Amino acid sequence: xxxxxxxxxxxxxxxxxxxxxxxxxxxxxxxxxxxxxxxxxxxxxxxxxxxxxxxxxxxxxxxxxxxxxxxxxxxxxxxxxxxxxxxxxxxxxxxxxxxxxxxxxxxxxxxxxxxxxxxxxxxxxxxxxxxxxxxxxxxxxxxxxxxxxxxxxxxxxxxxxxxxxxxxxxxxxxxxxxxxxxxxxxxxxxxxxxxxxxxxxxxxxxxxxxxxxxxxxxxxxxxxxxxxxxxxxxxxxxxxxxxxxxxxxxxxxxxxxxxxxxxxxxxxxxxxxxxxxx
Length: 278
Hints:
Blueprint: H1 7-12, E1 24-34, E2 41-52, E3 57-61, H2 68-75, E4 83-88, E5 91-92, E6 98-101, H3 113-124, H4 130-133, H5 135-148, H6 164-176, E7 182-186, H7 194-211, E8 214-218, H8 222-228, E9 231-235, E10 242-247, H9 262-276
Parallel strand pairs: 3-8, 3-9, 6-7, 7-8
Antiparallel strand pairs: 1-2, 1-4, 4-5, 9-10
Helix pairs in contact: 3-5, 3-6, 5-6, 8-9
């Protein structure tokens, strides 16, 4: 793995680089649910104000049940907030071009790695633009992305034939295939073993810098958040509000040795205290 790759090298690496990310703006966002049994209102999120700059990588942490995944689903446009507004660039969340990587790999078992990665492009190819409709162009771009995530040589394998870590690589490639303005990741490495998780953290940093995609990453792992993100957003307990936003000064991508640096340790301890005192 390229643990020692510098930020400049990652930025200048050629290949399947994306088109860059969009600005994300959340204004006074709130989300209420009605409990089925009692009919009572449950406020999951309240008064969320947050701006994410184009190409920025932010991580969201907080106590269990604080609404992290709910917030991600709102940003993705899967659910409409009961208060406030969410904009991605000049669009509402529901109409933005968004890639989503879930906790468990959600590949189609009947499709090969190549055809899983190409799936979103095949849907988008149903346009009058003949170049987008070209099977050859879709396959070429899918192969570029497979190379980007380190899966070259596994194009014709089915999901059950590759490891969990490789499935998540394919999942990431599929999310990137639509050239998303915004990439959302919901604890994508939590089910993986420690070594595979570390490898994918390194690769994700490289890919995020190279594609310059605006990324929102939800995790329970405070160390992971500090290692990966430009800024860490700490939510309070339910109803989730933004308690504090901390900046990680060292530019991405960061070497593994960053995780034993004084800066990393100080930031991790600060975030830990914030999470556990909410």
